[in-house]
Recover the amino acids of this structure.
C-alpha cells in the first residue's frame, strides 16, 4: 500500500468535491462495502461525499420466498441441501437452515456447486439440491456444474435457481428516483465476467458515470477519484481502473457457457419486487435439474420480518444504523435480516467496523 499515493488521492477527491454540496456514489458490490470499511477508506473521505451501499450482496437480495422454499426442501427426509455458508443463518418465515440442521436436516456447507455434485454422486439414494445464489460472478460455476452433471447422467443432483443480474437492478433504482445517485463504483468481480463495456448503458442512458475498481484501498480511491472528476465535469462514461483483472469484453468463455445453460427471466429481489429479466432460469434442455420442477417446490411471497429495514438498506434509502433494530434486537449473533448475516452485508459491515 503506497501511503503517499493514498494521501494524494484523498486530497484530489477533497478538491474535486469541495463546494459541491452532497455527492452520492453507490457501490453495488458487497466486497466493496466491506473493504471500504475494513481498510478505513470511508473515514478518509470528505464529509460531503457519501458512499451508499446498493444491492450488491447476493444473500441480502435473495427473497424471503426463496429461503422458505429452501427450508421446505430441507424438511424432506430424502433431501440434502448444499449451500454457501452465509445462507445457513438467514432467517426465513419459519426459521433458518441452521435451525433445520440442528433438528436433524441434512444441510451441508460447500465451497462450490461441484462439491454438491460430488456429494450427489457419493449418495445416489438422496436428492442433493444446491442453492444456486449469486450474481454474474458465480453463475459460470453453476453452468459448468450443470453441464458436468448432464454429461455424467447424474439424476439426483438439482439446483434451486437464484442467480441475479446486476444491471437490471441498477435500472430499477435509477427509475425509482427516490435516492439521488451521482455515480456508480462498479464491482470488480462481476466485471471480470461481463466486462467493463457492460456498464455503458447506465452511463449513456442515465448519464451516470461508472468506474470499475478492485478492492485494495488505493484502487478503490482511484475509482472514487475518477468518479468525482466525471461528476465535477458533468461527464458520464465508463472507466476501468482494475485493468489487471477486467477487460472490456469480460470472460467470453464464461459468458458463452452461461448463455448455453441459462436464459434471462423475471426475478424477485428482496423488498424490490419482481425486476424484469433480472434473473436466470435453466434452458429447456437442462430444466430437469431445476428443483422447482423436479421436486415440486415453489417460491412463496417476499415478506420482510417486522421492523427489518434490509430492503431500504440495499436500495440506499438509509444507512444501517438508522434502522431501529440495528445493534439492539438485530446483531450478528441474533440477526433479524440478511444484511446482518452475510459477510458482505452492509449491516454486518457497519456493526463490525463503523464503531
Amino acid at each position: 500500500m503506497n501511503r503517499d499515493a493514498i494521501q494524494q488521492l484523498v486530497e484530489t477527491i477533497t478538491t474535486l468535491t469541495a463546494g459541491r454540496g452532497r455527492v452520492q456514489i453507490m457501490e453495488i458490490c458487497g466486497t466493496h462495502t466491506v473493504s471500504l470499511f475494513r481498510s478505513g477508506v470511508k473515514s478518509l473521505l470528505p464529509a460531503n461525499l457519501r458512499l451508499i451501499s446498493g444491492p450488491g450482496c447476493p444473500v441480502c437480495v435473495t427473497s424471503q420466498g426463496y429461503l422458505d422454499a429452501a427450508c421446505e426442501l430441507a424438511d424432506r427426509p430424502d433431501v440434502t441441501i448444499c449451500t454457501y455458508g452465509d445462507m445457513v443463518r438467514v432467517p426465513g418465515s419459519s426459521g433458518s437452515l441452521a435451525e433445520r440442521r440442528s433438528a436433524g436436516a441434512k444441510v451441508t456447507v460447500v465451497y462450490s456447486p461441484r462439491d454438491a455434485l460430488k456429494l450427489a454422486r457419493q449418495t445416489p439414494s438422496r436428492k442433493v439440491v444446491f442453492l444456486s445464489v449469486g450474481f454474474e460472478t458465480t453463475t459460470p460455476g453453476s453452468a459448468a456444474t450443470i453441464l458436468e452433471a448432464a454429461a455424467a447422467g447424474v439424476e439426483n443432483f438439482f439446483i434451486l435457481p437464484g442467480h441475479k443480474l446486476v444491471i437490471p437492478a441498477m435500472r430499477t433504482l435509477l427509475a425509482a428516483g427516490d435516492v439521488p445517485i451521482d455515480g456508480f463504483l462498479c464491482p470488480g468481480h462481476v466485471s471480470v465476467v461481463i466486462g467493463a463495456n457492460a456498464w455503458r448503458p447506465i452511463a449513456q442512458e442515465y448519464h451516470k458515470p461508472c468506474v470499475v475498481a478492485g478492492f485494495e484501498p488505493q484502487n478503490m480511491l482511484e475509482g472514487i477519484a475518477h468518479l468525482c472528476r466525471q461528476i465535477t465535469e458533468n461527464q458520464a462514461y465508463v472507466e476501468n481502473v482494475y485493468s489487471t483483472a477486467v477487460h472490456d469484453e469480460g470472460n467470453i468463455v464464461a459468458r458463452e457457457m452461461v448463455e448455453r445453460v441459462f436464459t434471462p427471466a423475471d426475478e424477485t429481489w428482496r423488498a424490490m419486487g419482481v425486476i424484469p429479466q433480472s434473473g436466470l432460469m435453466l434452458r429447456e434442455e437442462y430444466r430437469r435439474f431445476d428443483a422447482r420442477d423436479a421436486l415440486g417446490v415453489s417460491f412463496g411471497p417476499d415478506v420482510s420480518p417486522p421492523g427489518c429495514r434490509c430492503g431500504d438498506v440495499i436500495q440506499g434509502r438509509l444507512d444501517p444504523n438508522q434502522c431501529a433494530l440495528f445493534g439492539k434486537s438485530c446483531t450478528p449473533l441474533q440477526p433479524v435480516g440478511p444484511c446482518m448475516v452475510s459477510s458482505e452485508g452492509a449491516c454486518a459491515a457497519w456493526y463490525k467496523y463503523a464503531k
Summary: DSSP finds 15 helices and eleven strands in the chain.
